[in-house]
C-alpha cells in the first residue's frame, strides 16, 4: 500500500477526491463479493457511475453516492442519511465525526441481521 496523505477536506483536489471516493466503492464491492464467496451473506450490489446500491436479503437497502461538487460521500440507510467529508486521512461524518466504514458496518450489520465489518 502507498503512503496515506493526511489532509483537510479543503486541500483535496478534484482528482484526489475521485481517487479516494472511487477506492471506497471498490472496497465495498470487494468485501460484499468476499462474503458471497464465503457464503456469509448474499448482498446484491448495483453500481451506476458514482452510485452503489447494496440490497440485503430482507430487501432493505444502503445506498452510497459520490457527491463530487461537495467532495463528499453520501450514505442512505434505513436509519437515515449521512454525509462524509475527507478529513485527517479518513471519511468522517459531517455531523459527529464518525468514520465512514465504521458507520457503514453498523448499518449493514443492523440491516443484514448479523455482524458485518467493512475495513477502510
TrEMBL record:
<dbReference type="InterPro" id="IPR047584">
    <property type="entry name" value="CyaY"/>
</dbReference>
<comment type="function">
    <text>Involved in iron-sulfur (Fe-S) cluster assembly. May act as a regulator of Fe-S biogenesis.</text>
</comment>
<dbReference type="InterPro" id="IPR036524">
    <property type="entry name" value="Frataxin/CyaY_sf"/>
</dbReference>
<dbReference type="InterPro" id="IPR002908">
    <property type="entry name" value="Frataxin/CyaY"/>
</dbReference>
<dbReference type="GO" id="GO:0008199">
    <property type="term" value="F:ferric iron binding"/>
</dbReference>
<dbReference type="GO" id="GO:0005829">
    <property type="term" value="C:cytosol"/>
</dbReference>
<dbReference type="GO" id="GO:0008198">
    <property type="term" value="F:ferrous iron binding"/>
</dbReference>
<keyword id="KW-0479">Metal-binding</keyword>
<keyword id="KW-0408">Iron</keyword>
<dbReference type="GO" id="GO:0016226">
    <property type="term" value="P:iron-sulfur cluster assembly"/>
</dbReference>
<dbReference type="Pfam" id="PF01491">
    <property type="entry name" value="Frataxin_Cyay"/>
</dbReference>
<comment type="similarity">
    <text>Belongs to the frataxin family.</text>
</comment>
<protein>
    <recommendedName>
        <fullName>Iron-sulfur cluster assembly protein CyaY</fullName>
    </recommendedName>
</protein>
<dbReference type="InterPro" id="IPR020895">
    <property type="entry name" value="Frataxin_CS"/>
</dbReference>
Amino acid at each position: 500500500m502507498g503512503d496515506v496523505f493526511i489532509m483537510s477536506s479543503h486541500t483535496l483536489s478534484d482528482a484526489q477526491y475521485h481517487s479516494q471516493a472511487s477506492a471506497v466503492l471498490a472496497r465495498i464491492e470487494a468485501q460484499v463479493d468476499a462474503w458471497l464467496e464465503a457464503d456469509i451473506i448474499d448482498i446484491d450490489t448495483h453500481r451506476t457511475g458514482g452510485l452503489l446500491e447494496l440490497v440485503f436479503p430482507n430487501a432493505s437497502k444502503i445506498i452510497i453516492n459520490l457527491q463530487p461538487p461537495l467532495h463528499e460521500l453520501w450514505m442512505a440507510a434505513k436509519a437515515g442519511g449521512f454525509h462524509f467529508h475527507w478529513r485527517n486521512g479518513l471519511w468522517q461524518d459531517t455531523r459527529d465525526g464518525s468514520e465512514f466504514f465504521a458507520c457503514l458496518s453498523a448499518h449493514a450489520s443492523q440491516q443484514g441481521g448479523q455482524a458485518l465489518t467493512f475495513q477502510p
